[in-house]
């Protein structure tokens, strides 16, 4: 009792809720939110301003989504998507592929050699390829990759390889790109890790586009990456959407995943260096390939095919695989070069591969001894297992078979591999012994050489992008040329037993300081070395001087940046003036001059150039009448220009933008029709600007152009109706699958109830039309028998092809390296001819020296890469081409060179040096 009474009497201190501090703030926030709106979605449009903003934002998003529909020419089953794993040496490329293969197939991949095809889902296969660490390999890889995984050593930072590869990618059509940070376990400090991650992410975004996916692989568990992280990465790969790239949809290509030498052995015996016959195997991609198409083997040359056969798919989709027997399990992977796959018969050889889990034995380990996990191993199994390792030509196998069968000698390939390793190790040793000399000599090479390699050029045709993000990426890349990437510097250093080419960003110096605290001793030395590199390279360009300044005085960064920014901005204005107004101001004056007096303005006295002047005049005459051309700047009548500084004028067009009030638009359109009929002067009205028509005294022109417009419209309408009729016919024929889709769409549109839905409807209609045409083609082809179909259509994309090529140089066989994928591209009509080509070209900002006319360069264009001698020129204002001895600074110029022709709008990249000096 006493206790009870005691407790009753005891007064506890009352709980006082916090009045200030983080907790109180949070509570306030919560209560205020809860109090105001319990269901934020239900009150989304409580404010009209907000509603308007939301609406315009969604419209903007919708608009951004729209792009000209690309025509997908792939008719057959989708071939496996190529996932390219790229990165500087020793960053973990092989390990990532092994981990991913393990994730998908539950099999351990002994080594990564050549493309590895795996089934990643019911409807999807992917082919993993490790990108070789040399420029040639990177160029080829950029041409066939559907998704590039850029591996970056997080503990070290960006290396030049990544940026060089990105530049190549930009030119050859930008496929999807994802970044993967590895070696993050080397960070001991969590804060530093976080900061570095953030920093690298933003740097990555600057290079690609904001929001580009970057994965973090935090470390290794049992020598493999963490399962969960690999699982996430695999999920992303499995669901990723790939857009067809324009060059590839117009050209068939094969990424070779199996290669055989089928030269008659007798011929080789007589002459070891005779031309060889080879067979190349791989999935057909891009578009259909007809018989008789010429091919280009990257790095080898153009050939006509001696034979082309379609084989059974070695790794079919689960949905497509027809099970032949009960034990016929689905084959989930195919990697003949890595020694994975299944039983395969073809003309040249028979391959027997048995999955580990069927026979319960492991592969041969490194020492060449079999570690038996299975209960018992019979002779048959041993035989089959030894056969597993033979995957070279028949003659080679005949020579080696008895050794392989009975003595368990490690095969030639593994020998070669280990030899390679040995040489590498010995090279490392040499470096360790003589680090200084080696280092300095390498610096000297790379100060010039490696920058030369990255001598990427912009081209006209680089706009052949399909995905918005990719476009954004390119835009970003070009936009930020001036301000961000100019600061990017290569820094060669000896790190972790090998020379690495670190990327240093001008605006990241402070960050580097932060990072450097970890590796202080090293980097102090490196700073000095950096100066040395600059000195040794001996370049005396302005930029380099600037860089020297920064290296000398880090405190002056701001000033240095100021001067750079000023300079770039001043340059930009000049360029802009030239680009936007330069011609517009000059053209009218020249044409006026020509009209006024027949004296040539610039080429006066020079009879040679007179005809050109006349051509110019003609141009002026033709264009003068054409008021509807897009580039109105050339014919600006200054008296008609509106003064956009006037508030009233600006107010007048406010509603023409997404943020404006659109209800007026419909009224205005009605009014506009009336106005056109009306002969009253409408000068100064904004209708003029929108339609691009000018009403200054050319009423008759306007009227006639209007009539033309109307006629055009009528024709268009007629065509549209025809198409609709066709479509209806098609729908009636083919069980109305599309119409149901359409209904859904229309329902959706009705729901959204916006004007913009019409536009997206148009977009969808365009897409539908393309699809319709495709379906009609397929329907038409389905009626044909197989042989005729093959004749007309060619081999369909996704077919596993065997290509036989005769008389290739013996070096192709001799130096064949499974780690260096072979790309075979189909050549279009007209592309097999040689001739002069003209390309727009700009010296890359990393290339320190100007390029000189007649200095040989190596050009990569289309599937090809070849050496040629360019002549640089620039187009003067009067349309003449003036030869340049050297390329101009920060400007495009023209390059004329001789070589196998490529279609217009093809991306071009040129290199001065392709030496593989990057290890
Ligand atoms: N600590 C740590 N080690 C890693 C990580 N990723 C890879 N490694 C190790 O780095 C070494 C090189 O890995 P590889 O997969 O052979 O690298 P690679 O890029 O294929 O190398 P090359 O083919 O020679 O260019 C291996 O010993 C890996 O175990 C990581 O995230 N953390």
Automatic annotation (TrEMBL):
GO CC terms in record: nucleoplasm; small-subunit processome
SMART domains according to UniProt: AARP2CN (SM00785), DUF663 (SM01362)
Protein name (Swiss-Prot/TrEMBL): Bms1-type G domain-containing protein
N-terminal signal peptide: none
Subcellular location: Nucleus, Nucleolus
Organism, scientific name: Prunus persica (Peach)
Stored InterPro entries: AARP2CN, Bms1/Tsr1, Bms1_N, BMS1_TSR1_C, G_Bms1/Tsr1_dom, P-loop_NTPase
Recorded superkingdom: Eukaryota
GO terms, biological process: ribosomal small subunit biogenesis
Family of the protein in this entry: Belongs to the TRAFAC class translation factor GTPase superfamily. Bms1-like GTPase family. BMS1 subfamily.
Keywords: ATP-binding, GTP-binding, Hydrolase, Nucleotide-binding, Nucleus, Phosphoprotein, Ribosome biogenesis
Main location group: nucleus
Record-annotated Bms1-type G domain positions: 78-243
């Amino acid at each position: 009792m006493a206790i009870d009474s005691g407790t009753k009497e005891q007064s506890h201190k009352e709980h006082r809720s916090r009045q200030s501090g983080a907790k109180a703030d949070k509570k306030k926030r919560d209560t205020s939110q809860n109090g105001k709106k319990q269901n934020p979605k239900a009150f989304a449009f409580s404010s009209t301003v907000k509603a308007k903003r939301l609406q315009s934002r969604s419209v903007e998003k919708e608009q951004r989504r729209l792009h000209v529909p690309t025509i997908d020419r792939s008719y057959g089953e989708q071939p496996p998507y190529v996932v390219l794993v790229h990165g500087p040496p020793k960053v973990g490329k092989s390990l990532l592929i092994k981990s991913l293969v393990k994730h998908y197939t539950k099999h351990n991949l002994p080594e990564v050699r050549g493309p590895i095809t795996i089934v990643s889902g019911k409807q999807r296969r992917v082919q993993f390829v490790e990108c070789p660490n040399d420029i040639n390999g990177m160029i080829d890889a950029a041409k066939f990759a559907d998704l590039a995984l850029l591996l970056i050593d997080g503990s070290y930072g960006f290396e030049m390889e990544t940026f060089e590869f990105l530049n190549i990618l930009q030119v050859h059509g930008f496929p999807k790109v994802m970044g993967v940070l590895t070696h993050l376990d080397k960070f001991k400090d969590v804060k530093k890790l976080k900061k570095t991650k953030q920093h690298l992410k933003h740097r990555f975004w600057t290079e690609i586009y904001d929001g580009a996916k970057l994965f973090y692989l935090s470390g290794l568990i049992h020598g493999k990456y963490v399962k969960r992280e690999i699982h996430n990465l695999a999920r992303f790969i499995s669901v990723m959407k790939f857009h067809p790239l324009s060059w590839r949809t117009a050209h068939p290509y094969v990424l070779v995943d199996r290669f055989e030498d089928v030269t008659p052995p007798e011929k080789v015996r007589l002459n070891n260096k005779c031309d060889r016959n080879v067979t190349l195997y791989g999935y057909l991609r891009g578009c259909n390939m007809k018989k008789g198409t010429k091919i280009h083997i990257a790095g080898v040359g153009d050939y006509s095919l001696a034979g082309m056969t379609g084989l059974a798919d070695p790794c079919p989709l689960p949905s497509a695989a027809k099970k032949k027997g009960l034990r016929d399990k689905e084959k989930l992977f195919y990697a003949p070069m890595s020694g994975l796959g299944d039983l395969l018969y073809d003309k040249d050889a028979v391959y027997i591969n048995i999955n580990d889990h069927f026979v319960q034995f492991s592969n041969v380990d490194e020492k060449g001894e079999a570690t038996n996990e299975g209960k018992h191993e019979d002779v048959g199994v041993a035989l089959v297992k030894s056969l597993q390792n033979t995957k070279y030509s028949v003659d080679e196998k005949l020579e080696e078979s008895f050794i392989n069968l009975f003595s368990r000698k490690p095969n030639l390939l593994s020998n070669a591999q280990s030899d390679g390793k040995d040489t590498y190790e010995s090279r490392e040793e040499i470096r360790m012994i003589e680090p200084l000399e080696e280092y300095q000599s390498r610096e000297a090479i790379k100060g010039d050489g490696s920058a030369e390699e990255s001598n990427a050029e912009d081209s006209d045709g680089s706009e052949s992008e399909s995905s918005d993000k990719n476009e954004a990426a390119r835009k970003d890349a070009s936009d930020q040329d001036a301000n961000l990437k100019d600061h990017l510097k290569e820094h060669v250093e000896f790190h972790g037993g090998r020379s690495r080419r670190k990327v240093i960003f001008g605006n990241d110096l402070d960050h580097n300081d932060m990072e450097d605290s970890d590796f202080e001793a090293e980097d102090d030395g490196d700073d000095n070395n950096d100066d040395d590199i600059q000195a040794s390279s001996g370049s005396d360009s302005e930029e380099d001087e600037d860089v020297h300044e920064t290296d000398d005085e880090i405190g002056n960064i701001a000033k240095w940046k100021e001067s750079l920014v000023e300079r770039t901005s001043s340059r930009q204005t000049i360029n802009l003036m030239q680009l936007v107004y330069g011609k517009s101001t000059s053209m009218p004056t020249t044409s006026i001059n020509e009209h006024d007096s027949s004296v040539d303005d610039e080429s006066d006295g020079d009879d040679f150039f007179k005809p050109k002047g006349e051509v110019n005049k003609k141009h002026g005459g033709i264009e003068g009448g054409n008021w509807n051309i897009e580039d109105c700047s050339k014919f600006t009548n200054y008296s008609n220009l509106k003064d956009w500084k006037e508030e009233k004028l600006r107010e007048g067009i406010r509603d023409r933008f997404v943020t404006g009030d659109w209800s007026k638009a419909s009224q205005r359109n009605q009014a506009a029709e009336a106005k056109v009929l009306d002969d009253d002067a409408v000068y100064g009205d904004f209708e003029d600007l929108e339609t691009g028509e000018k009403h200054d005294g050319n009423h008759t022109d306007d009227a006639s152009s209007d009539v033309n417009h109307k006629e055009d419209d009528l024709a268009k309408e007629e065509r549209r109706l025809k198409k609709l009729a066709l479509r209806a016919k098609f729908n009636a024929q083919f069980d109305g699958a599309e119409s149901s889709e359409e209904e859904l769409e229309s329902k959706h549109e009705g729901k959204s109830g916006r004007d913009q839905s019409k536009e997206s409807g148009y977009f969808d209609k365009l897409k539908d039309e393309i699809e319709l045409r495709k379906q009609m083609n397929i329907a038409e082809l389905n009626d044909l028998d197989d042989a005729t179909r093959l004749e007309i259509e060619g081999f369909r994309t996704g077919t596993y092809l065997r290509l036989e090529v005769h008389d290739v140089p013996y070096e192709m066989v001799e130096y064949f390296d499974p780690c260096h994928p072979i790309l075979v591209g189909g050549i279009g009509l007209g592309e097999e001819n040689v001739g002069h080509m003209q390309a727009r070209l700009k010296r890359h900002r990393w290339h320190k020296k100007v390029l000189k006319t007649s200095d040989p360069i190596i050009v990569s264009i289309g599937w090809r890469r070849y050496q040629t001698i360019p002549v640089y020129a620039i187009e003067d204002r009067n349309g003449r081409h003036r030869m340049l001895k050297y390329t101009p600074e920060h400007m495009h110029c023209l390059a004329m060179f001789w070589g196998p022709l490529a279609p217009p709008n093809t991306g071009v990249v040129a290199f001065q040096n392709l030496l593989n000096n990057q290890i």
